Automatic annotation (TrEMBL):
Protein's gene: ctaC_1
Membrane topology, record value: Multi-pass membrane protein
Name of the featured protein: cytochrome-c oxidase
Keywords assigned by UniProt, alphabetized: Copper, Electron transport, Heme, Iron, Membrane, Metal-binding, Respiratory chain, Translocase, Transmembrane, Transmembrane helix, Transport
Reactions performed catalytically: 4 Fe(II)-[cytochrome c] + O2 + 8 H(+)(in) = 4 Fe(III)-[cytochrome c] + 2 H2O + 4 H(+)(out)
EC code(s) of this entry: 7.1.1.9
Superkingdom: Bacteria
Compartments where found: Membrane
């Protein structure tokens, strides 16, 4: 199934921008509560603003002609009581919503651990056999099942945020924070780092795919398996190039001896991902080749060097093999 066509909205990579990264299109009860709170705060703020501006205009235009309205009672009611009551109501509503969205999930909740790096996301699931399953820059979530995501970072402060599913939460070095929610609508959403984390902060995004429980379990089982063996000579040549170029020193490909790196994203199933470069490029063989040859041009300052010294046939074979890793 192509999530790019089944989602309610589309992504900036694939066409339209509306909705896929918007707090105005909630896909969980928690996001709906945050949207409701935002609307009430906006309404309350607008009411106070209109009141203050009206009084200011009245004071300028009337001057001393309306002495009764200059009494202490009048000032106390409109200058203190009204804003205090309005802000007090909003504060109580905020506390109620905060308690609601922070309720502990049940024991059957799916638990995921996300680590922020400059500039990509490491994502670890608990696999079908209890062993950790690592992927990167993409989340798959089961529809209707509570999800608990614990986050931290390996370098600077980041912020994990999927506007359509939950509020943002900071990722702090040496500290673990938690966010929980229950996706209720299937489809494709986009997340974004919400804390400035360096020159490529704007290019630190990811995709979240909400799908039925059965499809999620099938996806997780595939992710838990080792990389598939090459089926054509081109893929065999690409795998050989991967090892000869030293890519395995930074990237892991499970099932491939010599590819146990931990610096960069796990590439065991990179061909199944929707994007490259942390949500920045569409996932395709052409973009894979472009990223390998020009990583520093596409995202300057990331830890992967540009392999522009590689000849064309070798580059195409390497990109084709990586794309075959679904």
């Amino acid at each position: 199934m192509d999530w790019r066509t089944t989602s309610q909205t589309d992504s900036p990579l694939f066409g339209r921008l509306d909705g896929i990264q918007s707090v105005l299109d909630p896909h969980s009860p928690q996001a709906e509560a945050i949207l409701s709170l935002g609307n009430w705060i906006f309404a309350g703020g607008t009411l106070i603003f209109i009141m203050v501006m009206s009084l200011l205009a009245f004071a300028i235009l009337s001057r001393r002609r309306h002495t009764p309205l200059r009494s202490t009672t009048f000032i106390a009611i409109l200058g203190f009581v009204f804003p205090a009551v309005t802000l007090g109501v909003l504060m109580v509503f905020t506390i109620i919503v905060s308690l609601r969205i922070s309720e502990a999930p049940g024991e059957d909740a799916l638990r995921i651990h996300v680590t922020g790096h400059m500039w990509w996301w490491e994502v670890v699931y608990e696999g079908p056999d209890g062993q950790p399953v690592e992927t990167a820059n993409e989340l798959h979530l089961p529809q209707g099942r509570p999800v608990v995501i614990t986050v931290t970072t390996s370098d600077v402060i980041h912020s994990f945020w999927i506007p359509g599913l939950a509020g943002k939460i900071d990722m702090v070095p040496g500290h673990v924070n938690t966010v929980s929610f229950t996706p209720t609508k299937r489809g494709l959403m986009r997340g974004q780092c919400a804390e400035f984390c360096g020159a490529q902060h704007a290019k630190m995004a990811f995709y979240a795919v909400v799908e039925p429980q059965e499809r999620f379990e099938e996806w997780l089982a595939r992710q838990a398996s080792p990389a598939r063996e090459p089926i054509v000579d081109l893929h065999e040549a690409g795998r050989t190039a991967f090892l000869e170029q030293g890519c395995g020193s930074c990237h892991a490909v499970r099932g491939l001896p010599g590819a146990e790196g931990e610096i960069g994203p796990d590439l065991t199933h990179v061909g199944s991902r929707l994007s490259l470069g942390a949500g920045w490029l569409d996932g395709s063989v052409g973009n894979l080749a472009g990223w390998i040859a020009s990583a520093q041009h596409i995202k300057p300052g990331n830890r992967m060097p540009s392999f522009d010294r590689m000849d064309g046939p070798t580059l195409r074979a390497l990109a084709a093999w990586l794309e075959s890793l679904e």
